[in-house]
């Protein structure tokens, strides 16, 4: 039988490209040919790399030279990507068809539901690759089903009020995605999610591949009506999953630059001693918050590796200079503009991750057995932080003051709790070890995620014949 062709389409942001690219690599292992499409500057960056055999890169238009950067008019950007993306992706698929390459399935990431509409119009099966926990998909499902008002108004009269949705842990207003409040700067993603659920309704057999695993979210994976969810995570390079493929060491799609000297620096530090700090690829801390972070880090005896991204990479160092205690920070720790995060989290010297709780960061940390200080900023990060603290008990979540700042003393409290000798810290570290083992179990050949992906692909193969 001729090898199948798949198209994987990713929204052009690091947190969506990374898991989608890992999925593409898994698909290659089945002998398929995979075209990986993303937009603009992310595509140009990736097109310069040397993809594994069978994988090729293609692009669709997002109408932007710069791509998704802080400060961009997000609403305009999203409107452009829907319109131009639909047109250009359609052209890409039609051109492939004319050249004799019919895609057996189009995989697409969160917030680009229009890909499913393009696929449908060309009678090609499509499936969503959900890059957040299943719990989040369920919350959206309930929101659009009949709980919209209840979720929006949660905590308005009583901040401690909690909502009990079937199959999910209790949720307070602090735990639901910030997208539900219209004044949130990312509220534009809500209409896109609405389109996604409309797509599910219109599909005879909607299937979603979720970057999670069965043992991590057994009940949330079963919640939503007619949709079948397949837990296929963790989608991280396989060299970090007990060396299934020792050469597969990077996501292969860094959209930011960094050097590698931090690994030598980590090599000099004792086991479990280093605090790693990163806020992902989009969030930017205010200067006031950075000063408090510095205060918190300097108050412990631990060395730290802190990623302070510079969004204009030519100006590396620009943001760092604004910190008042730079000299002291550089004596005790290391500040880098970007790093290979999974490599850092896998390093024996790393004992704690202060994270913005983006799902990739959270899941990578859990898979590497690194306990967390969850420091959510917006969106799904609040829910992820709640899961880390309450459900999986692999970390602690920071509290903000009345001005929305997490103070240095609070950061110190959380760090001491996670890396300190107390009973709570020990339990957190024990749990982190347990989840690391379970994540690897799920990912290995014959593990639940491997079986789920194979089961899904068998369905697709049967439909293609
Ligand atoms: N990342 C990285 N180096 C860094 C910071 C982040 O490689 O210095 C990667 C990280 O491993 C993760 C992704 O960027 O895969 C960030 O995704 P996440 O969902 O955590 O956050 P987002 O950037 O979407 O807010």
Automatic annotation (TrEMBL):
PROSITE patterns: UDPGT (PS00375). This is Glycosyltransferase. Keywords: Glycosyltransferase, Transferase. One of its GO terms (molecular function) is UDP-glucosyltransferase activity. Belongs to the UDP-glycosyltransferase family. The keyword Glycosyltransferase applies. The keyword Amino-acid biosynthesis does not apply. It comes from Eucalyptus globulus.
């Amino acid at each position: 039988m001729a090898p199948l062709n798949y198209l994987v389409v990713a929204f052009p942001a690091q947190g969506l490209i990374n898991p989608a690219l890992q999925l593409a690599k898994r698909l290659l292992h089945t002998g398929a040919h995979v075209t990986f499409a993303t937009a603009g500057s992310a595509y140009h960056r990736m097109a310069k790399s040397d993809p594994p055999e069978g994988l090729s890169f293609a692009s669709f238009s997002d109408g932007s030279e710069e791509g998704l950067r802080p400060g961009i008019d997000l609403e305009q950007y999203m409107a452009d990507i829907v319109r131009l993306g639909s047109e250009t992706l359609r052209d890409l698929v039609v051109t492939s068809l004319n050249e004799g390459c019919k895609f057996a399935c189009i995989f697409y990431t969160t917030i680009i539901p229009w890909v499913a509409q393009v696929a449908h119009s060309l009678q090609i099966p499509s499936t969503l690759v959900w890059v957040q926990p299943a719990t989040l998909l369920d919350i959206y499902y309930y929101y659009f089903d009949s709980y919209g008002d209840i979720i929006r108004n949660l905590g308005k009269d009583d901040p401690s009020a909690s909502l009990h949705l079937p199959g999910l842990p209790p949720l307070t207003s602090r735990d639901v995605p910030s997208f539900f409040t219209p004044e949130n700067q990312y509220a534009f993603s809500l209409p896109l999610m609405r389109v996604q659920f409309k797509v599910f309704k219109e599909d005879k057999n909607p299937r979603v591949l979720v970057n999670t695993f069965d043992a991590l979210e057994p009940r949330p994976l079963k919640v939503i009506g007619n949709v079948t969810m397949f837990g296929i995570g963790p989608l991280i390079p396989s060299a970090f999953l007990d060396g299934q493929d020792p050469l597969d060491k990077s996501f292969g799609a860094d959209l930011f630059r960094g050097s590698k000297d931090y690994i030598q620096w980590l090599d000099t530090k004792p086991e479990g001693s280093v605090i790693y700090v990163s806020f992902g690829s989009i969030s930017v801390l205010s200067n006031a918050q950075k000063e408090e972070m510095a205060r918190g880090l300097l108050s412990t005896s631990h060395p730290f590796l802190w990623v302070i991204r510079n969004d204009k990479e030519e100006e590396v160092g620009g943001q760092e200079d604004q910190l008042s205690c730079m000299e002291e920070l550089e004596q005790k720790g290391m500040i880098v503009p970007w790093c290979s995060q999974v490599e850092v989290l896998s390093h024996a010297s790393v004992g704690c991750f202060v994270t913005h709780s983006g799902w990739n960061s959270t899941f990578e940390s859990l898979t590497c057995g690194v306990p967390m200080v969850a420091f959510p900023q917006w969106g799904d990060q609040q829910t992820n932080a709640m899961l880390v603290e309450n459900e999986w008990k692999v970390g602690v979540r920071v509290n903000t003051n009345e001005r929305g700042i997490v103070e240095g003393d609070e950061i110190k409290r959380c760090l001491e709790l996670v890396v300190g000798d107390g009973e709570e810290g020990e339990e957190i570290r024990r749990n982190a070890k347990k989840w690391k083992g379970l994540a690897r179990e799920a990912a290995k050949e014959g593990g639940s995620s491997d079986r789920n992906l194979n089961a899904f692909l068998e369905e697709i193969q049967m439909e293609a014949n």
